[in-house]
Amino acid sequence: MHFDIPKIAIFNETSSKQYSKMAREIKEPCKKEACDIQACLSKNNFLPQRCIRVIQLLQSCCEQCENKSTHCGSVSGLLKQINK
Q: Number of H helices and number of E strands within the chain?
C-alpha cells in the first residue's frame, strides 16, 4: 500500500526566521545599508570620505522608500561631513 503525501508548504523554524527577517526589512527599510556604513566607518577610522559608496547606497535606499526609515536621518549629516 502506498500513500501520497500532499505537497504543502511546511512552515518550519527556518522559514519562520526567514519570514521574520523579511518582515523586519519591510518594516525597517535601509537597515542593511545603515549597517554597512557602520562597518565601513569602523574599518576606516570613522572618516566618511572613505565610505562614500556605501553612504550613496543608503541615500538611494532612502529616496526609494521616501525617507520612511529611521536610518535615513543620518544620511544628510554624513553627506555634510563629506562635502566639507
A: 4, 0
Distance CA(78)–CA(18), nearest Å, equals: 31
Asked if residue 61 has pLDDT above 90, the reply is: yes
- Count other Cβ atoms within 10 Å, centred on residue 76: 12
Taking the mean position of all CA atoms in its chain, how far away is CA 21? 11
pTM, full prediction: 0.64
In angstroms, the CA 72 to CA 66 distance is 9
- By CB neighbour count within 10 A (0-12 exposed, 13-18 middle, 19+ buried), where does 33 fall? buried
